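I am writing to request your help with a piece of structural work I have in hand. I set the record out below, with my sincere thanks for your time.
___
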Amino acid sequence: MSETKMVVSRRDAMKTMLGGTAAVLAAARRSRAVTRIDSVVRGVQIGAQSYSFRDRPLDAAIKAYQDVGLGEAELWQGHVEPDEDKLGHAGLREWRLKTPLSFFREVRGKFDQAGVELYAYNYSFDHSMNDAEMRRGFEMAKAMGVRYITASSNVSLAPALDKLASEYRITVGFHGHDDTSDPDEFSTAETFERALRGASHYLAINLDIGHFVAAGGDPVEFIRQYHDRIVTLHIKDRKKNHGDNLPFGEGDTPIVAVLRLLRDNHWRIPANIEYEYGQPGMDTVAEVKKCYAYCRQALES
């Protein structure tokens, strides 16, 4: 055999060996691949706002998703950011602007490893934020690989947020409460309509059906009318007329009707449990399991 042929043969052998090693490593990676948690019930994605697990830090909250069996998450900013009460807003702003975006990519990785889809990031824009701070919210969301930001915000901020949302191609879903006395707070159908009027499709709605009922609204009718502008629902049970949060089935919120509306119309809107009725000392995971069981029964009946 000539020296040239010997060199070629050695190269080919090395390629074969490396190719085999790569195949073994790829197979090992596949064997370690995390199975996604499936919490789709009759075509409706049931998940949770991580605020439901506000009694524990992020890693423990992610573990709670696994314990309950929920495969989709809307991440509350309180699970990511330091406490504003300790830092003050100036300190929190500095954290937001200076924390490396790799931190947020690592957060996404934790959900991926747990088999939980990180669907949206909750970053609530308000008038205390400067332009850089608002822009940073979109950069965080982009780093986490999510297409949606949910925000307890102000109606008057809609035009500024529309520009940023269009620039980053990340949709902002406005979240409402039941403060009907302030026209700049999202609460009634009129406040959502006012914010979205003339806006791009990057402005949307994160409808909290419990708060909407407490503010005097009919979530079933609202969803029928605006389902194509709703990016996620918050599922909780409240009484009318600014009433209390209650265990599912004990308030005035038509949870069953809302879930079946999604199911029967094949509207792919995640229904995220937001556990709020609990008292200190209650077992959060056990209560969220009850909420999930209630939703499953509503959809399977």
About this structure: The CA atoms of residues 207 and 233 lie 5 Å apart. Residues 1-28 form one domain. DSSP finds eleven helices and eleven strands in the chain. Confidence is low (pLDDT under 50) at residues 1-21, 23-31.
